[in-house]
Amino acid sequence: MTKPTIDKTRRLMTLGLISAGAMAPSAARAQFRLPLKELSDIKKTIDTIDDVANLIEQMSIDEDAELAMGESLYGPLIADAGGAYRNSAVQSAVERIAAPIFELSERPRFTWEITVLDSNEVNAWCLPGGKVAVCKGLLRYAASEDELAAVLSHEFAHAELSHVKSEMKQKAFYQGMSDAATTAAVKAIDDNTVDQVIVGLKGPMYQLVTSGYSKGSENEADQYIVTVFDSLGRDVHSGVGFFHTLLELVPSKSKRKTSLFSGHPETKKRIKRITDAAPAEGPQSPADSDDFGRIKTVFPTRRHYMRERAG
Predict the structure, then answer these.
(1) Where do the domains of the chain lie?
(2) What pTM value is reported for the model?
(3) Buried-most residue among 88, 130, 187, 211 (CB within 10 A)?
(4) Per-residue H/E/C for the chain
């Protein structure tokens, strides 16, 4: 994997240091393109989720579409997830901790943003185009800045590597769509009205980013933690401590999955893959910053694990 390059001057725009409106893409420019042949050559009758998946599999989803999805869905999904946590000091501290990670982006058109959600879920997620969210419940269990940085690096990778584009071509992505939403999405694709395609994909997108991607995408995002930590001079072995915490949080027989957790056996394998890919004696991470201290003042690290219900 190519190590990300850092161009801080060029990346200032990606950190939200200018207004989001100046960077917002126009949905009219975004394209969910069908191949250059008649739609009737593909299939005229779209009756099932399988038909939708088969149709989208033959489409090209360009970067404009990624940007439009992130810009259009970020606000609604934040609202659905509990809204933004109303503490400006915590929000600013998390933004500053995330900034060095976002500076590694090789996607200059992305407008990177991060929001702390007023949710007790121990989770984080990322939309296409660089729109990241982290639940306040997760901040309670991050015992160090390395652990929080590992979470943010994992989510960063999903957007940076365009994982949504590949996931949208899988039939599983569409399981949450109603018949009406399926019909509307197909018509919008046929008409190339991207804003309506995005509205139709809100449910499946929320399910994907909060509950986890395919195994291949999750493993690739895990490996990217090593790449990011190498660039930042942080200790990966310290960062993966958060994944050990997840194993303590979720009952061993639970089938529940999140963006960061994929069951006990698989999460243990993921931890091993990350540590195996890291240098045996990597750099010693810098001490936790004042910003992380501010977060811990509001959310002291829980030593008693509040186990989630099995399910």
Answers:
(1) 38-210
(2) 0.81
(3) 130
(4) CCCCCCCHHHHHHHHCCCCHHHHCCCCCCCCEECCCCCHHHHCCCCCCHHHHHHHHHCCEECHHHHHHHHHHHHHHHHHHCCCECCCHHHHHHHHHHHHHHHCCCCCCCCCCEEEEECCCCCCEEEECCCEEEEEHHHHCCCCCHHHHHHHHHHHHHHHHCCHHHHHCCCHHHHCCCCHHHHHHHHHHHHHCCHHHHHHHCHHHHHHHHHHCCCHHHHHHHHHHHHHHHHHHCCCHHHHCHHHHHHHHHCCCCCCCCCCCCCCHHHHHHHHHHHHHHCCCCCCCCCCCCHHHHHHHHHCCCCCCCCCCCCC
